Q: What sequence folds into this?
């Protein structure tokens, strides 16, 4: 499925089978490999990028819907996937940035 505003609006909220535990369902975009939206049992919807980085599956949350629109999330996903394709690890860069700011 291609992730669009009408599609995200209609995504079903998953039901948790374990009392007190949240359920999650991930939906992946057919048009952009690695881009998706996560829906939780509380009704929260968040966009993410998922990709192998150094042989480890990394999932980077882009932001919550509707504050982050589908178009904004798609642009950010494209940027991050481009960085990953050129060998840049956005997760490691973000951690390094935090360390520099805290010193």
A:
């Amino acid at each position: 499925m291609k992730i669009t505003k009408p599609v995200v609006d209609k995504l079903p909220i998953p039901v948790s089978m374990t009392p007190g535990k949240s359920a999650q369902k991930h939906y992946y975009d057919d048009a952009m490999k690695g881009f998706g939206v996560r829906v939780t049992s509380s009704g929260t919807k968040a966009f993410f990028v998922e990709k192998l980085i150094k042989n480890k599956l990394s999932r980077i949350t882009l932001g919550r819907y509707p504050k982050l629109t589908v178009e904004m999330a798609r642009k950010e996903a494209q940027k991050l996937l481009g960085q990953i394709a050129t060998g840049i690890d956005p997760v490691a860069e973000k951690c390094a940035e935090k360390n520099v700011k805290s010193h």
